[in-house]
Amino acid sequence: MPARRPSARRLARTPPRGAVRPEAGASVAGADSSRALSVPIIRLPGNDDLPLPERATAGSAGFDLRACVVEPVILAPGSRALVPTGFALALPPGFEGQVRPRSGLALRQGLTLLNSPGTIDSDYRGEISVVAVNLGQEAVTIRRGDRIAQLVIAPVAPARLVLAPGLSPSRRGPGGFGHTGTH
What we know:
CATH topology of the domain at 38-155: Deoxyuridine 5'-Triphosphate Nucleotidohydrolase, Chain A
Order of helices and strands: HEEEEEEHEEEEE
CATH architecture of the domain at 38-155: Distorted Sandwich
Shape: globular
Number of strands: 11
Largest sheet: 4 strands, antiparallel
Radius of gyration: 20 Å
Helix content: under 10%
Strand order of the largest sheet: 2-11-6-8
CATH class of the domain at 38-155: Mainly Beta
Number of helices: 2
């Protein structure tokens, strides 16, 4: 008899092996505070005026990250810059941070992120920085305190790669990069 797979509902509420259990009483907007994951965060020197990353609404998946720049950064069309946020954090094992663009900035100004989503590994302890790029047609100015990206904290599947003599066939096969067409 084949091994029984856990249900999607059970997987969603089961932390990865080795993950830190959520602390009771931790508060996250829109989440059951008794099940919220506690993630230590520190404010780096020179960042006393910026708020902690926070979710804009109760249903927001990501925490807004703000620019911690001393002077405004002007991005000409096609240019990029590494923008600091003024914070560092300690993700528990079994989790990653995904740094993602903000959709409104991308739509209105062409400001997005390279290496998107950027990955923050659980053993990284440096400052969270954002690789911003201007894909628009006008210069974009990033000022201190501007919300420039969002941070989503997500579980990482405990996986290992196993060398195999071949792969099982699938309907798709090796097709990729638009092989299914546009219609």
